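Before the break, one more example. Copy the sequence into your notebook; we will annotate it together after we see the structure.
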Amino acid sequence: MAENSSAQNSNGSNSSISNAELQAVKVVYLSLNYVAALSNVLMIIVILRSQQLRQGCGWLIVHCLIGYSLLCGVCFPILRILQDKISDHLYNPPSTYCSNFLVVQMTVRYSINIFEVAISFNRVVAICCPHQYKNVSSRFFVIGLIVMVWLSAFCLALPGGLGFGLKFVLTPLGSCAFIQLNNLGLVNLTLGFYSPLALAAFGYFLVYAKIMKANCGKPRVYQSGAHFTRAYNRRLATANMMFVAFLWNSVFYLLIPVLMMTAPQIFSSAPKLHLWITTLQVFGYMLNPPKERC
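Here is what the structure looks like once it is written out:
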């Protein structure tokens, strides 16, 4: 049904958007992508150059930022450039074009989501169970976790590429979108998108609640009052960062998967909305809050 809807709207949708609008969106979209990729690469360099930042969940953050850099610096720009060639009939994509490309993109996207969970619960252990933190921050544990995250992300993305539960199709403007075919597709999206973001948010909430509970009331002044006040302010800033991270995930990262699950036809019937929503998502990648720090 969604394919028929896309086909029926393919001609009218393109005519509803002027060439000037398409070019404006393209410039904004690609600019945001490259700025986002550069900002994430710079953050990776900062972490790798600091032994202190590499400790704990530092390597988890590095791989999460690598995911963001791949999305914004490689996947999104290539798809956007090819989208223009397809819409201008300069490139005739093979039937497996969207399936192959989006398997790679969804592997990266799923890995980011799972790394967010790993980072979130690393902080939960550090703040709520500090005596156990050494175990979850050891070198072998972190390496094993990183390998498991990438493999899990690929295994979650692969069924969609093979047509199990999800189907990747071209939209009228030449971009790719996925359609949920059955309950298996819902399970895939739940495991790859909704559950990781919900678990990460739950971890943020636990940290936030723990810090706020410890900070109830005004900080008492001891002989080392200045040191205590700095620690109090640092914990309070961390709690606020957790709250901002939760809102950021909800606004920028959940919008597209929720729309694709609840109203997949919206991207064929309202291609202009599709363009600006994807641009909004890249804006979220570009201005990641300081949640990527331990």
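The first strand starts at residue 166 and ends at 170. Strands lie at 166-170, 176-180. Try to locate both features in your own notes.
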